[in-house]
Each structure stands twice: as structure tokens, then as C-alpha cells.
Write a structure and sequence with these properties.
Bound molecules: NADP nicotinamide-adenine-dinucleotide phosphate
Mean pLDDT: 95
Structural class: alpha/beta
Distance between the termini: 53 Å
Low-confidence stretches: 232-238
Radius of gyration: 19 Å
Strand order of the largest sheet: 1-11-8-7-5-6
Helix content: 25-40%
Largest sheet: 6 strands, parallel
Length: 291
Amino acid sequence: MSMILDGRIVRDKIAALLSKKISKMAVRPTLFILQIGDRPDSSKYIRAKKNFARRVGVDVIHNVLPISILEEEIISVIKNYNDDHNVHGIIVQLPLPKKIDAAKILNHIATDKDVDGLTDFNMSKLLRGAPGAVPATARGVVELLDFYKLPVVGKKVLVIGRSNYVGKPIALTLLNEGATVMIAHSKTKNLGKIIKDQEIIISVVGKPNLISDRMVRPGHVIVDVGINTKKGKLEEEIENKKIIGDVDFEKVSKIVKAISPVPGGVGAMTVAALFENLYDMYSQTLNKKNG
Ligand code: NAP
């Protein structure tokens, strides 16, 4: 049986640490969460963020705007919170409805409040390996591996998935950490063969059972970022839909060295990492103010 990379344990440790540090601050940090539409999965992730915020002593303002909203109206809301000195971090819950240009919206977040690190400015820092907010999922993956003493330096790491806001930031973060990174995607041929030659596999796709027991070997470290839902029979079961990753966990976990479960793996880490980013950015702003 593999070592289980339990993100909830790490998340709870981060929560305890953050709560201690935040309790010493004169002003509690405030996070603004903007949601467009009412996707049940987005609402669920936002609830997890609000719960974590409560645990660590962060105030949250959560605005839900209708799906029919115009881009200019969204931008105007973001600008208001950019100018609000009582708000220290801003996130726009992704994915946005298809008709909305996500990059355009995200790029209006003030760079010193961009706690998800997804503005072009902060992404360019990531590309250059300069210090700054690392996108939460990427920071979560690195901290999960680090907690379980699985070093990435010099390791052959395969990131499967190349999306701008998840796959690529994970690959760049691991590259900055000293891993030798390969990126696979939907056009990649012979994925099974490529996987065999790698040491750490990070799946960021969104396809159940993409990684099967036949593709892995003992010694592999598998991080499953994918989130897929097994549909319930009734529409009202949506809240209770079973969540699974990209990896056939039951079979793969019998072979590999280490594996992160879904749920309870990277998802939990992503929430914690977001608040670590908020704390880091807020304390930097305070330090600048104080001289
Ligand atoms: P996305 O934009 O749909 O990107 C999926 C990526 O997977 C694309 O790069 C795509 O390649 C690639 N792909 C699709 N089919 C493939 C295949 N058969 N073999 C290899 N690569 C394939 O999705 P995303 O926003 O990056 O999210 C990916 C997954 O991560 C989703 O399940 C999402 O829910 C989950 N997620 C989890 C967390 C967390 O905290 N755990 C956070 C964010 C996202 P092309 O580029 O060639 O199309």
C-alpha cells in the first residue's frame, strides 16, 4: 500500500499556524470573493474557503453576481475593492461563464491583492522565478510533497494538463523548485510510455481513470489534482455527488510509492495555500507601510 498524501492533515497544520500569526495582527485580513453565477461546484469551493477563513480569523466578503452580468460591470466591482483599504485580497472564483474573458477580468485585480497569483503581472513573476504569489493549487502541490518529505529537486516530474490557470502554473512552480519538468496534454502520444519513465506524476486534467494501474510502477509518486463528479441519479443529489480524481485510486494505490487521494488531497491544500498567500501579501503590505 502506498503512502497516502493526506492534504487535510497538512491543511489543518497550516490553519493552526496561520491562526496563531493572524491573531497577533492589529487588523484581521479581509478577503473578497467574487462569484459569477451559481455553479454548485463553485459554491461548494467557496464554502470551503469561508470555513477555512473562519478557522484562521480572516473576514470574507462574498459577492455573487448574475450570469447575465457584463464584463464592464464585473470590472467596476473589482476596481471598487481594489481601492478599498479594508480589503487585502481579491479572488474571482473560476471557471467563469464562457462568454466572459477570464484573463481580462483577472487582470483588473490589483497586483498586491491578487492572492491567487493569476494576473499577468504575477504570472510573469512566476515565469521569471521571482518571489510573488504562487497560484494556490501550485503552492498546495509543492507544500504537500514537501510535508511528506518527497523532494522535487532533480526529480523527473510529469505534469499532465497545460491550462493557463492550473497546469502551467504547477509546471512552472515545480521547475522553479528545481524539478526537471515535462508537460503532457491532449495531443501527447503514448502517455502510458512517458509516465513509466517519470518519477513524480501530477495529473491536472479532469478525466476519471486517466491514470490506470497499467501505467504506473512502484516508486512513482502520484499527485491527483483532477476533480470529477460521479453524477447522482437525482439532480438534487448534486451537493452529495461523489468526487473522484483522474487516477484509478483503488488500483493505483496498491502499486505506487505515494499518492494523493480525491477528495482530501490537493483540494484541501489549495484552500490552505490561498490563505497563506493572503497572509504573505498582507504582511508585506504592512511591512512596506511601516517603513
Ligand atoms: P482544463 O482547462 O480543461 O485543462 C485540462 C487539461 O488537460 C488541458 O491542458 C488538456 O489538454 C489536458 N487533457 C485533456 N485530455 C487529456 C488527455 N486525455 N491526456 C492528457 N491531457 C489531457 O482544466 P483545468 O482548469 O486545468 O483543471 C483540470 C482539473 O483540475 C479539473 O478536474 C479541475 O476541476 C481540477 N482542479 C482542481 C483543483 C484542486 O484544488 N484540486 C484546482 C483547480 C482545478 P489540451 O490543452 O491539449 O486541451
